[in-house]
Amino acid sequence: xxxxxxxxxxxxxxxxxxxxxxxxxxxxxxxxxxxxxxxxxxxxxxxxxxxxxxxxxxxxxxxxxxxxxxxxxxxxxxxxxxxxxxxxxxxxxxxxxxxxxxxxxxxxxxxxxxxxxxxxxxxxxxxxxxxxxxxxxxxxxxxxxxxxxxxxxxxxxxxxxxxxxxxxxxxxxxxxxxxxxxxxxxxxxx
Amino acid sequence: xxxxxxxxxxxxxxxxxxxxxxxxxxxxxxxxxxxxxxxxxxxxxxxxxxxxxxxxxxxxxxxxxxxxxxxxxxxxxxxxxxxxxxxxxxxxxxxxxxxxxxxxxxxxxxxxxxxxxxxxxxxxxxxxxxxxxxxxxxxxxxxxxxxxxxxxxxxxxxxxxxxxxxxxxxxxxxxxxxxxxx
Lengths: 190, 182
Fold this sequence. Notes:
The complex is a heterodimer. By secondary structure, chain A is an alpha+beta fold. Chain A has two helices and ten strands. The relative contact order of chain A is 0.22. In chain B, α3 crosses α4.
């Protein structure tokens, strides 16, 4: 075998190795950094829970706002099963100003594998939808709508220009997250 | 004297897992009279500046998780002795020796996650690969923390490890003081 053919063979092996490494890096990058899809969220109802009204959870008063927002939403599949399937450590429901790039103003745990986040029992599975989906009720602190006007009336705000949006967010402890589209929740009834 | 509670998150905490970041947010909301700060594990220099600057004469608690605990260990080398160190399942590539850490904190609680086959998760594999610290010497031995726990929990279960108590009834949550979060 000529020296040229030996060099060509080595070159091919090096190129193959380089391509394999590049493919592994790209594969890991996609796995680690491209968010998975948690499914389509549909908001079915929203209302304000006035001060003193129980929200069914166990969040201490010093961590909760007096007025809270209860949101009924539906998803195609049970979120615990989705979390397991995607290998997420937790899945949380979030409220944020619409168009705020996912910077959450309020968040509550839907399901988690361990004590990653504080879970105050504010998200409950409440049944199934006629189409076979799953319905949840989530109660959020009313951080964005807490505006008080000059007459000390709450401005049921709705907030920030553009209103409030609900979305789901999941994450692993290391590498990997999952999201859903953010959907407007509309105006809560008092 | 100002009371400083400085939380240091591990890898990815400020980016997508938000485990310590959320804990800090809840704790600071529950305890507005404390000066609470959150840093990523990459914020060692900023923590040094804070501890040698605004917080110099304060009562200092450092709470670190995973790589954040390792950051706390190395920060201690460059600042005055802190009042409380809580290291939750520390992970680090270049490990500081236990005796040096012990000398730099008046009170130290170390919690190590040792999940069983049922509770072990991918988090634990990554923590192992990242260079998880071993068990420290027992309390009372040279280099041993004042309080030590081995928890049957996954690496990411920061809250669970903050709640777990030693046989003497001591937990990260109780040492931290103030109003507790879940």
